[in-house]
Amino acid sequence: MTLAQFVIFFHIHAMKHLLLLCFLFTTAAWADDATTDKGTRISLSASASIEIANDEAVVLYHIEASGSDTNKLRSKVNDISNTIQARLKQEHGLKLTTLGRRMEVLSHYDKSSGRQIRDGWKLVQSEQIVTQRLDVIPDWMNNIEASGALLDGLNYRIATATLENAQQELRLQAIQQFRRQAASLSKAMDASTFHVLEMQTSQNSPVFPMRAEMAMMRSVAADVSAPALNAGEGKISVSVSGTVLLPDKNYSAE
């Protein structure tokens, strides 16, 4: 046998052994998977919830001016906005955001000409305050109205950090409840163990409706007493659902 023939013979036999090993490992893996899937599958769900005091407020307001002279409109809106912002900058623990500014056309329909006739312009600037200083909200609202702005709404909610911490704690509680249910069922089925095949979690965040009635409030003087407000509470819940596998067991018919 030449050297070239020996090399070819060696490679052929090596490949045969390699293919045989791959087949054996694959067969063993299939056998493990088949063994894992054997048993009784049971779907379970659990949940945990809590009510938490709202600790953050969102105040929406806008400034508007109407007329035929756009320069005067800009000046009026800018003056009111600057006054409010200068007042709020003296405070701490708030976030002030300008949501938008738009110039609208004021018009009426003229029957004789059959078209819209422009009467003037209206400039509107919308702003938002977010704060966790709930005790000062009534005074801020009075100052905003006294400066010439109009309140659009007040919304109390649970702050993001508070919400995430509560959801994390509730998620752990729901998972523990899920495990207790699985253990109880395993015991009822005379099974000493159970295997969690899959698990999903979901959370329901509280809905915070905007209190539109605040838009109806109008303070006619700076010394008007502050409104009485109640932040209320929000309910947070977390649900866990999944499937557990109990080992096969034969039961007596008696």
Please, could you describe this protein's structure?
The chain starts with a helix and ends in an 8-residue tail after the last strand. Helices cover 37% and strands 36% of the residues. The protein has four helices and seven strands, in the order H-E-E-H-E-E-H-E-H-E-E. It has a domain at 56-159: Alpha-Beta Plaits (2-Layer Sandwich), CATH 3.30.70. It is of the alpha+beta class and 254 residues long. A four-stranded antiparallel beta sheet has the order 3-4-2-5, covered by helices on one side. The protein has a three-stranded antiparallel beta sheet with strand order 1-7-6, with helices on one face. Residues 27-31 and 212-222 have low confidence and may be disordered. The protein has helices at residues 3-37, 70-88, 137-146, 160-188, and strands at residues 40-53, 56-67, 94-110, 115-131, 150-157, 195-204, 233-246.
Task: Provide a brief overview of the structure.
37% of the residues lie in helices and 36% in strands.
Tags for this model:
three-stranded antiparallel beta sheet; Alpha-Beta Plaits; alpha+beta; 36% strand; single chain; four-stranded antiparallel beta sheet; 254 residues; 37% helix; 4 helices
